[in-house]
């Protein structure tokens, strides 16, 4: 950094420095991952800026989906440039960052890489992948060979979520020899880097819920991601591959957001009437088309479902609202989702069903599913956990006074979507249960009638 007109070394935590500054060999990949407030992006931004002011380098700052510059680390880099005293050397604009010696920072989403911008990306020295817990194998396989300048590197940063995530498999289970990687969390960061509020939050969660503390703050993903054990008696299960005959037992739930998050859930109902939430998609900003494409790709690449798509998708009824797009044409958000799914080549038609939007019904059923009533189906949760999802569901479930009304806050979009899915899955379970009861009653009646007929035919012998 620059102090009194002189360059002084940038101070980094030990693990961060080992990954970002080690030059004992040519590392192709540098990775920091772990729990919340581990200063991963903070350290990376500092090192990137220090490199940029000393020699001409081209950086690509990317993530799986980036619809606007606000979704990127643009602001973090701008703040870092100012903090390190390089305002006069690096020029920050609304679309990028450049320096007179030739250094530059580009910002784009991995989904936006195509033939038109491929050549500009080929000359990148460092590609920085943020929020890499959302990274898909498909996107990485496009980016990796594209960053091919001699000596180029790919930096990867993410918060641990699930052992099923592609990036976790890449960096932990099948780590390349030319990758340097460290797991970090808030305990690896100097205390002066953290506010007292953050420290208090972590310690409070450590006392109240040690498993959740380990997951969020220490970055310890469970074998299935996260499920809601604190809501009831939900035992951890070994992850399983869905059977080939699972069609009809997979459903989707969707709440499209314009000013708020778009949330999608994939559910599976097993033969024992257990409800499994396979994964979540939660993202904000962008278009209906962008969300639809991302959801499609997420279903297609999800490892447990081996590409099996939901038979039914239950959606927020407001998605049916028609908007005028020209003098004679009207279109709804739902129309856009249907169009994308058709273009993507879905061979079997998906049934789009308006969800039950009565909160009181959804809240009551969620209370049953999470163990408040006896005879509930067990619900497990595998992948894509986020805290706003859980907090939203908690508010819905534990509003004792008025179950159908709750304050709009962070997580309620995901909670609404979960409500649609749980109501649909629970209804499916009840239909199966009723069919089994009717079948049992029919079989009992048949056997009883046969028995009575047999007894009647035997009566003359005893006359």
Can you describe what's shown?
The chain has 463 residues and is an alpha/beta fold. It has 2 domains: 2-197, P-loop containing nucleotide triphosphate hydrolases (Rossmann fold), CATH 3.40.50; 229-431, Nucleotidyltransferase, domain 5 (2-Layer Sandwich), CATH 3.30.420.280. Helices cover 37% and strands 19% of the residues. It has an 8-stranded mixed β-sheet, with helices on one face. Strands 17-14-11-12-13-18 form a 6-stranded mixed β-sheet, sandwiched between helices. Strands 1-2 form a two-stranded antiparallel sheet. A hairpin with a 4-residue loop joins β6 (97-99) and β7 (104-109). It is globular and about 95 Å long.
Summary of the model, kept short:
This protein has 463 residues and is an alpha/beta fold. Helices cover 37% and strands 19% of the residues.
Task: Give the low-pLDDT segments.
Answer: 223-239, 372-376, 403-410, 458-463
Q: Helix fraction?
A: 25-40%
If strands are numbered along the chain, what order do they take across the biggest sheet?
5-6-7-4-8-9-3-10
CATH architecture of the largest domain: 2-Layer Sandwich
> Could you tell me the strand content as a percent range?
15-25%
CATH class of the largest domain: Alpha Beta
| 3D shape | globular
> For the residues shown, what is the average pLDDT?
77
The CATH topology of the largest domain is given as Nucleotidyltransferase, domain 5
């Amino acid at each position: 950094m620059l102090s009194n007109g002189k360059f002084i070394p940038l101070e980094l935590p030990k693990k961060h420095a080992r990954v970002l500054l080690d030059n004992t060999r040519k590392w192709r990949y540098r990775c920091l991952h772990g729990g919340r407030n581990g200063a991963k992006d903070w350290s990376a931004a500092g090192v990137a800026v220090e490199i940029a002011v000393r020699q001409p380098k081209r950086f690509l700052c990317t993530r799986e989906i980036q619809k606007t510059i606000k979704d990127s680390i643009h602001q973090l880099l701008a703040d870092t440039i100012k903090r390190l005293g390089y305002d006069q050397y690096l020029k920050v604009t609304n679309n990028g960052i450049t320096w007179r010696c030739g250094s530059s920072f580009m910002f784009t989403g991995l989904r936006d890489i195509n033939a038109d911008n491929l050549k500009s990306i080929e000359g990148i020295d460092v590609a920085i992948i943020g929020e890499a817990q959302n990274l898909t194998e498909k996107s990485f396989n496009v980016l990796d060979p594209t960053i091919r300048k001699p000596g180029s590197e790919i930096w990867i940063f993410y918060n641990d979520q699930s052992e099923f995530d592609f990036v976790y498999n890449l960096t932990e289970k099948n780590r390349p020899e030319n990758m340097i990687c460290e797991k970090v969390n808030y305990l690896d960061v100097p205390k002066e880097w953290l506010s007292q509020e953050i420290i208090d939050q972590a310690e409070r969660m450590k006392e109240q819920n040690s498993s959740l503390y380990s997951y969020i703050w220490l970055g310890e993903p469970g074998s299935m991601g996260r499920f809601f054990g604190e809501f009831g008696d939900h035992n951890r299960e070994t992850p399983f591959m869905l059977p080939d005959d699972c069609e009809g037992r997979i459903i989707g739930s969707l709440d499209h957001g314009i000013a708020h998050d778009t949330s999608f859930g994939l559910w599976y109902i097993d033969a024992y009437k257990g409800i499994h939430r396979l994964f979540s998609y939660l993202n904000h900003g962008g278009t209906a088309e962008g969300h639809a494409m991302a959801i499609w790709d997420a279903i297609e690449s999800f490892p447990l479902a081996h590409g099996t798509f939901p038979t039914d998708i239950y959606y927020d009824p407001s998605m049916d609202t028609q908007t005028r797009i020209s003098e004679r044409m009207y279109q709804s958000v739902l129309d856009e989702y249907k169009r994308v799914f058709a273009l993507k080549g879905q061979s079997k038609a998906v049934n789009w069903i308006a969800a039950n939007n009565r909160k009181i019904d959804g809240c009551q059923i969620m209370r049953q599913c999470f163990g408040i009533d006896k005879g509930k189906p067990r619900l497990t949760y595998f992948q894509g956990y986020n805290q706003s999802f859980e907090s939203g569901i908690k508010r819905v479930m534990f509003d004792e006074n008025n179950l159908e009304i709750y304050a709009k806050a962070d997580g309620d979009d995901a909670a609404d979507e979960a409500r649609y899915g749980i109501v649909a899955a629970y209804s499916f379970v009840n239909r199966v249960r009723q069919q089994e009861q009717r079948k049992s009653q029919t079989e009992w009646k048949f056997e009883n009638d046969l028995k009575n007929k047999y007894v009647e035919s035997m009566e003359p012998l005893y006359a």
